[in-house]
Design goal:
Helix content is about 75%, strand content about 0%. The chain is an all-alpha fold. Belongs to the inorganic phosphate transporter (PiT) (TC 2.A.20) family.
Length: about 750
């Protein structure tokens, strides 16, 4: 068990860093203040420094949740093993979804769930009552954690929004044009907050700062803060004026280092606290010579320093994970996307609650606007106007998600709130604070406009809901695993470890597969050309991909029906929906495409709109064919008759030839070949019409299944619509293409 816990500790470090990297990377990555490589180096140094300066006092794991004197060695080991297995699986689950959650909350509720399960077994054996649970469990700590969650979510969001509103109202989006003293005062405030954060939260127990400095910080915080503010403000003014350094970039780099260091120094307990407590418990038991079912674990209540070598190794694992974990980047992306300033593809779909919150907020804002004098409101609105520098939609991924001012406020406010909570000895999750501050600042910065508010609010609600799901699932899962380990002993342990390894492997494979799908070559690309010939050339790859995928989806629908294969049809239905979603994404960019055009090439917009309409018609027909085929088999209706399948296969073969010829024409940019494809139009129409007539005759004489008849007619009619849409598309290209004209493209700005 000790060896297994050691391996689980390394795994937990990997999944833990993948989750918590969002705490210190989102502001730097989102603002693109410094290069990604520099961000990673700064964060790595912060992690290494934090791990080395960590006190290693694993109080929560040893005695924070349960009273160790009430348990024997065997029971403690079952608790620790259940906690580690649950923690790894839970964090990996959230990482795979790309959702940030709290490692502090997960470890606390896992310890609580596992210890409650073992305690209830002991109470049952001694014929005690449920009230005896208070003897074994530190219930006050759990209640304090829950209160801390609710409080931190509300306070972090509110303070983040308030500070960002004030900062933006004073500095505006044109912060580069402001005088140096404005930048210097802001830098002085931000760096002072971050320095205080480092001393109070990051290095509060490090030997490096023991003595006079730490005593002065603790006893005279206001004097320390005032002195720092003056020093850093003057320093910022000097480097900004003489060296022309950007103070905002310095604040972001410094803040990233501080939060990374605090994460390693304080959250290390969440990953290695339990295994180290288990190792020290094992060493105490081994030295005692007492049976594991009798050795009392009251020794865990004593303070024990964690070996420095273990902390260094842990820091190394964390740094390596930070550089190589694709899941860490996925979790960071969720946070950055929800906070970005521009409009774009939204990951989360709106729900009833998000819509109601947005409606309520609009009404509240309108009522508040009536109270504020129009002159003041106009001045404030002027500060929130974004600079009018238009960039093509496809290039927005290369732009910062938000500017340097917001990134600096994110780091400054998060640092201050965590520092205050730590000095007051309040439980606080760094994940909750950093995420909710980022959401609050994005709201205050008017990043959640009418076009995106319901999606962003839905995303925040999903993340917050995930936090409470973390607490509940951590408690229940750890309790169940602890019970199974207690009952099954060695057999349960082996089965649990094998199951955990299998789940982690499956998630890893699934995540890699999704990543590859996102990067797949046949994903559709947005057009940037400004002329019809440019759009024809640029969209050719898109059309070839749509045709290739349409061919596959249509053939798979017929094949799935012929075999009555539900799983096959389900996958095919997902593929048709994915294609429809991608084409919808292209249609949503019509606004940005038209904005790029000059007067000389306005005709390209009509061509683009028509092309999008034909592609949409094709995707809708394919989506309908995939859906009705799946529903027919899923509802256990009769199989289609042999003649029906045979006729559908004939259409499929004819369509496949057309699809292949079309794909080749677009891939080779040989648009003259389209004329040959168009000649098959009437032949395809006649074939489908013939099948319809044959089915009408069968229905009148021999057909006995209404469901089969309905499905068959639906497939034929949608096939006809699919042919119509594709032929219209080809006619558009064939009519507009002119090889003698050089395609015009949008001038890069």
């Amino acid at each position: 068990m000790v060896v297994a816990l050691g391996i689980l500790a390394i795994t937990d470090l990997v999944v833990g860093v993948s989750n918590d990297a969002v705490n210190f990377l989102n502001s730097a990555i989102g603002s693109k203040a410094i290069s990604f490589r520099t961000i990673m180096i700064v964060a790595s140094v912060g992690i290494a420094f934090g791990a080395m300066s960590s006190s290693g006092m694993m109080e929560v794991a040893r005695k924070g949740i349960f009273n160790p004197g009430e348990f024997v060695f065997e029971e403690i080991m079952f608790i620790f093993m259940a906690v580690m297995i649950t923690d790894i699986l839970l964090l990996d689950f959230f990482n795979t979804l790309g959702m940030p959650t709290s490692t502090t909350v997960s470890i606390v509720f896992e310890l609580l769930g596992a210890s409650v399960a073992i305690s209830l077994i002991k109470i049952a054996d001694s014929q005690g009552g449920f009230s005896d649970l208070a003897t074994y469990i530190n219930t006050d700590k759990a209640a304090e954690i829950i209160f801390g969650i609710l409080l931190s979510v509300f306070i972090a969001f509110s303070i983040g929004a308030l500070v960002q509103f004030i900062s933006r109202a004073l500095i505006s989006f044109k912060f580069k044009k402001r005088s140096k003293w404005v930048e210097s005062v802001f830098g002085g405030l931000a760096i002072t907050a971050i320095v205080y954060f480092i001393l109070v939260k990051g290095l509060k127990s490090a030997a490096l700062f023991d003595g006079a400095l730490s005593e002065f910080v603790a006893t005279q915080p206001l004097a320390f803060l005032a002195g720092n503010f003056v020093f850093w403000t003057l320093g910022s003014f000097i480097v900004a004026s003489l060296l022309q350094w950007n103070i905002y970039r310095i604040v972001i780099g410094f803040g990233t280092f501080a939060l990374a260091m605090a994460f390693a120094g304080n959250d290390l307990v969440n990953f290695i606290g339990v295994p180290i407590a288990a190792l020290q418990s094992y060493q105490d038991w081994q030295a005692s010579g007492i049976a594991p079912t009798e050795f009392n674990m009251r020794g865990l209540a004593a303070a024990v320093q964690t070996p420095t070598m273990l902390l260094l190794l842990s820091g190394a694992v964390m740094v390596i994970t930070l550089w190589f974990s694709s899941k860490a980047k996925g979790v960071v992306k969720t946070s950055v996307d929800l906070a970005r300033q521009d409009e774009g593809d939204e990951r989360f779909q709106p729900n009833y609650l998000s819509r109601q919150i947005v409606k309520f907020s609009i009404v509240a804002f309108e009522n508040l606007s009536k109270v504020v004098p129009p002159s003041i409101q106009a001045k404030i609105d002027k500060q929130f106007v974004l600079p009018q520098t238009y960039v093509p939609k496809s290039k927005t991924q290369e732009l910062p998600a938000f500017d340097l001012v917001r990134a600096s406020v994110n780091l400054m406010v998060a640092s201050v709130l965590i520092s205050i909570a730590t000095s007051m000895k309040l439980p606080l999750s760094t994940t909750y604070v950093t995420f909710m501050v980022a959401m609050g600042t994005s709201l205050a910065d008017r990043a959640w406009g009418a076009e995106s508010a319901v999606y962003r609010v839905a995303g925040v609600l999903n993340v917050i809901g995930g936090w409470f799901f973390t607490a509940l699932s951590a408690f229940i899962a750890a309790a169940i695993i602890a019970y199974l380990l207690f009952v099954g002993k060695f057999i349960s342990l082996v089965l649990m470890l094998v199951a955990a390894a299998a789940i982690l492997l499956r998630n890893y494979i699934s995540h890699n597969k999704k990543t590859k799908e996102i990067k797949a070559e046949d994903s559709l690309r947005r057009a940037e050309s400004s002329s019809i010939q440019g759009v024809i050339e640029e969209t050719a790859a898109n059309i070839a991909n749509v045709v290739k995928r349409s061919n596959r989806i249509y053939s798979n629908s017929i094949q799935g029906l012929s075999k009555h294969d539900l799983d096959f049809l389900k996958k095919n239905k997902k593929q048709s929906k994915k294609l429809a979603t991608e084409i919808d994404g292209l249609r949503n960019d019509t606004f940005y495409f038209i904005k790029n055009l000059d007067e000389a090439h306005v005709g390209a917009s009509n061509f683009y709109i028509n092309i999008m309409g034909h592609l949409t018609d094709m995707s809708q027909s394919l989506e309908y064919i995939g859906k009705v085929s799946y529903n027919h088999v899923n509802n256990n209706h009769k199989k289609l008759k042999y003649n029906q399948i045979k006729e559908l296969k004939e259409i499929d073969i004819a369509l496949e030839n057309v699809f292949n010829s079309t794909q080749k024409a677009f891939e080779e940019r040989s648009f003259e070949q389209i004329g040959t494809v168009l000649k098959s139009k009437e032949k395809l129409y006649d074939m489908v019409s013939q099948k319809i007539n044959q089915q009408v005759s069968r229905t009148r004489t021999e057909e006995s299944s209404p469901k089969n008849t309905t499905l068959y007619f639906s497939l034929l009619l949608e096939s006809k619509d699919l042919i119509t849409a594709m032929m219209n598309l080809l006619e558009q290209y064939y009519a507009e293409h002119d090889s003698s004209i050089t395609p015009a493209t949008i001038e890069k700005k």
